[in-house]
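Predict the structure of Phosphotransferase enzyme family protein.
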Amino acid sequence: MENKIIDTKITAEVVNQFEFNGEFIHIEPLGQGHINSTYAVYFRRETVPPIRYVLQRINTSILKNPLTLMKNIEGVTNHLRKKIMEAGGNPDRETLTIVKTKDGKLFYEDGDKECWRAYLFIEDATCYQSAEKPGLFYNSAKAFGRFQKLLSDYPAETLSETIEKFHNTVNRYKNFEKAVQEDRMGRAKDVQKEIEFVKARKDDCGIVLDLIEKKEIPLRVTHNDTKLNNIMMDNETNEGICVIDLDTVMPGSVFYDFGDSIRFGASSAAEDETDLSKVYMDINLFKEYVEGFLSEAGETLTKKEYELLAFSAKLLTLECGIRFLTDYLEGDTYFKIHREHHNLDRARTQFKLVANMEEKMEMMNEIVMSHCKN
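Done. Here is the predicted structure for Phosphotransferase enzyme family protein.
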């Protein structure tokens, strides 16, 4: 019944607010996102085929300032459109196209204070949940590398933080220390090994932030959620044509995007694997991603960024593990769990990856530096 009420509300009120082209046909749920509610909206036109748009209800409990959010996205996509057009590409296909409301706004706020936005649908392309076809991981690396390259001259300091301190590893460590000290669930005594693992790597947490503050590495536009399913892949070529889900686009470091890609994509096992003997970083997948990413972004990176690119994989994996362990100590209040000790299992998997990366760091650095032209 709830879905029917929502659908009625969308078709009766929300759809009519946007500059959609044609006669409304129908609406259907779209994708597997966990944050926003997403729909495909179909419109009939007289002399050309029907057209689809993407309509999203923004989750304002997480993305608390939709105006700031949409201004970020507008600025970045306008910049990308200009660069794509200069290169002779198709901006309607290679970046998100915001469809404004009929009164020229970036989003619509309905009578229930819910906020909606719309994009042009990118046809003949697919979002994959896993690298089920050969070359997809490499092509995703190229797509995120190209995203970095095209935005390398964007004034990152003009962007707002849509989620405060999202990749601030120092702040994540402070939250961890607080969780250990308060020990509100009485769980700290059973995870001393994991707690000591994190504490032994405290100094790693501040390296990137210190370099940004000292201006030894540039502040860059970063996507901050560089999973495979945030890229539209062309159905014919399997090339990554468009980076989507720009909600977490913020000022940051290239390390955030590269490091998290390796954490998630080069792992041999699921994020919550309980058999740690199955968990390691696949050096071949690491090499594949490095080659794809640097084939596009390489010319825009500084030597210092090259030197720490491999380290960033370890740092972002450590940060994620810290977040899982912190949530476990606090009573599993942030990440959804599906079994007892789920967040602890996730933390242990990340820490096993960190340890494995430390063993392979020399090899990882050699792979990265072999591509350095600076």
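Confidence is low (pLDDT under 50) at residues 1-5.
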